[in-house]
Structure formats: structure tokens, C-alpha cells
Design goal:
This protein is α/β, with parallel strands linked by helices. It has 14 helices and 16 strands. The protein binds adenosine-5'-triphosphate and magnesium ion.
Length: 389
């Protein structure tokens, strides 16, 4: 096939969104444009799809690779565009289908103001098949798609699956709790898949933020940015919490730490206008992730906490981490805030009890103190995070 320089990009679910449709389409267009920056691509909106036009055909492979990561895209395909006439369609088909190939024709008319319909297209192919360099067989596994639109007929060979989901940004923003482990990057991926644009909050065990900034955490964030750019990332130190909970029985430290992180994320969500908090928790995956602990660790947190991995097995999460490219970074050695490795964490807690311990340790002021020591990275610049509530 002569190399095409155009790509049709179809969106799936956003088609259903009724009144909000223009916003979804606008968001998806701008996300595609962002993903294709530097490729010399123009993106045009056409009724039920986008047409991407490349200045340079040799950029095609790179463009197809990028489109695989843009949420909201259901499928895409490099296309040849012919005029809306049976003759032009046939001559374009002769150009793009290989000699002696056998294909099945799948014709569709999204634009009806032409004097032929999809049966006529297939009929014409059959009628002219004697002269054509390829053969027609409706049982062939190879396909030629012919789609008549208002601006011309699109001819293409295969639909490359996109990642589905909703355009990042179309569901608002969220603060994602990112650890050095395998799960939270996958949770972040799924949150973005449902249209949330993320900020990341990481609690680190280093002496200063500089060390955290040269750790693997920014690498995970960088990898995740392939699926959607983040609003900001926050690096909060662990030591204030650690000092405040020295006297607490280690069985309760983890559930307190979770509540502490959620309250911090709640404050960040409040000042940054985020709609949700995302975590990588999965029910019952480790001893501490019981329903009662999860419940105690969200008490008093006004912002919605979403846990996209709640129904996943660890193996499934690992497979996903591999396929989105975060696994290799997640398993690199990391100095996690691992003093919280109680051999037998409490598995059955209640909100009142955890709240009491929280107060006893003065964790409300530990949250304030930790936030005042937090470094925020926004648009590539690291700066102290200052909030005035
Ligand atoms: P992960 O693989 O994501 O670390 P996990 O299986 O180790 O998860 P937990 O240690 O119970 O499970 O952590 C549950 C969630 O709490 C994490 O997925 C993440 O969202 C959040 N979390 C844990 N530690 C940190 C941290 N240091 N900074 C920010 N968030 C964290
Ligand atoms: Mg972890």
C-alpha cells in the first residue's frame, strides 16, 4: 500500500454523552494534539471522528504509537481518501490493495447524500473484479473498509484498537496517592482512563525533597504522563508523622498513616479544586487492607476516595503494570517509608478508635506541618507548597 498521510481516529463512549458532547470532543481533540506535538500533524474534527493529517508520511509509525495511549480513542486507522464516486473508490482501492490479495469489502455510508449506497459499492467491486488486480471474497480474513463521508470516501485496511475510556480532563481532576510500589501507578492509569487528570502526592522517607526528586518516583510520573499530563506533583516528608506516632503501638501505625495521607490529600484537593482522591488499595490484598481498615482510614475525609483496583487480583495488576510500562520502575529498589512494616497490623479497626489515636498523636497539626514542608512540582518547576486555608 502506498503510504498514507492521513489517519482516521474514532471515539467510542463519548458519543453517548449527549449535552456534554462538545466538551468531550474538544478535550479529546486537544489531548490528541498534545500527544502528537512535534509530529507535524493537524487534527480536524469531522462529525463522528477526527482526521489527522501529517505533513510528512514518514512520521506515521510514531503517530500510530502515540494514538494507542490517548484515552477516549476507540480505534484508528491510516486511511486513503478518495472522491465520493464509485470510479474513484475503485481506483483508490486498486492502489492500496496488494496484487493477488483476496479481500472482503466492508462498506459503510456515514454520509447519505450520494447516489449510491453501501450495496452499490460492494456490487461495483464485484462487477469490476475481472479487471481488478485483487480478488473479492466475503469470507476472506483480510478486509478493505470503505467509508463514505461528507468530504470524501475513506479506504483503510485495519482498525487499530485505541485504549478506550474517556479523554483525560473530561471527568475533572484528582489527587493520586503514589507510592514506590506496583499498584498505585496502575490505579492512576485507570483513574485517567475514566477521564480524571491527576496530581500526584508521594510521601517520601528521604532527608530532603531533592533526594525524592532524583528518585524513581518522578520516573513513574513521567511514564504515566504518556497517558495524560499531570497538574502537579507533591513530595511530602514522612518524618513529622513518624515522630508524632513514636509511642503508638505499631499495629495501628499503618491505618493511621493512611488516614494521615488521606487527610493531606483532602487538603490538597481542597486548595487545588480536585474532585477526588485515588489510591492503589485493593480489598484483602494484604493483611491491612480489610474493609474496616479502609473505612477507618477515610473518616473525616470529605473528598471522594476512588480505588480503581478494588476488584483486581495482584497478578492482574502486575500484568497491567507491565503493559503500561511502570512495572520495571516499580520493582527497582526504593527507600520506601518502610518503618511501617508491622508484622501483624490491626485488621479490625473502627473509625472512632482510629480517630482517638489520631487525636492523641496530634496528627492534625502533623498534617499542617508536613504540608508546610511539602515540595510542589508544577510545569517542571519545584517550589515550596504554600497553602492558605
Ligand atoms: P502500592 O503497590 O501502590 O504501594 P501496596 O500494595 O503496597 O500498594 P499499601 O502499602 O497498603 O498497598 O498502600 C495502599 C495505597 O496507599 C497505595 O496504593 C498508595 O495509593 C497509597 N500509598 C502507600 N504508601 C504511600 C506513600 N509513601 N506515598 C503516597 N501514597 C502511598
Ligand atoms: Mg506499597
Amino acid at each position: 500500500m502506498d503510504n498514507p498521510k492521513q489517519v482516521v481516529v474514532r471515539f467510542g463512549e463519548i458519543w453517548l454523552k449527549g449535552k456534554n458532547r462538545p466538551e468531550f470532543i474538544g478535550q479529546l481533540k486537544s489531548n490528541i494534539e498534545h500527544a502528537l506535538e512535534g509530529y507535524g500533524a493537524s487534527v480536524y474534527y469531522r462529525r463522528d471522528h477526527f482526521l489527522v493529517d501529517l505533513e510528512d508520511k514518514s512520521k506515521m509509525n510514531g503517530v500510530l504509537k502515540e494514538l494507542k495511549h490517548v484515552f477516549g480513542v476507540s480505534w484508528f486507522a491510516p486511511v486513503a481518501v478518495s472522491e465520493n464516486s464509485l470510479d474513484s473508490i475503485l481506483s483508490e482501492a486498486n492502489r492500496i490493495v496488494g496484487r493477488a490479495e483476496t479481500v472482503r469489502i466492508v462498506a459503510h455510508r456515514s454520509y447519505k447524500k450520494v447516489d449510491f449506497d453501501s450495496h452499490d459499492i460492494v456490487g461495483e467491486f464485484i462487477k469490476k473484479s475481472e479487471e481488478a488486480p485483487f480478488r473479492i471474497d466475503r469470507d476472506s480474513r483480510k478486509t478493505l473498509f470503505v467509508n463514505v463521508t461528507g468530504y470524501g470516501t475513506l479506504l483503510f485496511r485495519r482498525k487499530i484498537p485505541g485504549p478506550g475510556g474517556l479523554p483525560v480532563g473530561s471527568s475533572g481532576t484528582a489527587v493520586s496517592l503514589l507510592s514506590g510500589g506496583i499498584d498505585s501507578p496502575v490505579a492512576s492509569y485507570y483513574a485517567m482512563k475514566r477521564g480524571l487528570r491527576l496530581s500526584y502526592l508521594h510521601v517520601h522517607g528521604f532527608r530532603d525533597a531533592q533526594e525524592a526528586l532524583s528518585s524513581k518516583i518522578p520516573k513513574i510520573i513521567e511514564r504515566l504522563s504518556v497517558y495524560g499530563t499531570s497538574v502537579a506533583s507533591y513530595y511530602a516528608p514522612f518524618h513529622v508523622f513518624q515522630a508524632a506516632t513514636l509511642r503508638i503501638h505499631e499495629r495501628y501505625e499503618l491505618v493511621l498513616f493512611k488516614l494521615f495521607m488521606h487527610r493531606m490529600a483532602d487538603k490538597i484537593a481542597g486548595v487545588s479544586g480536585a474532585d477526588a482522591i485515588v489510591t492503589g488499595e485493593s480489598l484483602g490484598q494484604v493483611a491491612s487492607q480489610t474493609a474496616s481498615n479502609i473505612s477507618s482510614s477515610q473518616s473525616g475525609v470529605g473528598t471522594l476516595i476512588v480505588r480503581p483496583l478494588i476488584g483486581f487480583d495482584k497478578e492482574e495488576i502486575i500484568d497491567m503494570a507491565k503493559s503500561i510500562g511502570t512495572y520495571g520502575i516499580s520493582v527497582q529498589r526504593y527507600r520506601d517509608v518502610c518503618s511501617i512494616n508491622a508484622k501483624r497490623p490491626a485488621t479490625s479497626t473502627n473509625a472512632a478508635q482510629v480517630e482517638r489515636l489520631y487525636k492523641e498523636c496530634g496528627l492534625d497539626s502533623a498534617v499542617e506541618k508536613t504540608l508546610s514542608l511539602t515540595t510542589m512540582v508544577k510545569e517542571g518547576r519545584a517550589q515550596p507548597f504554600t497553602i492558605s486555608l
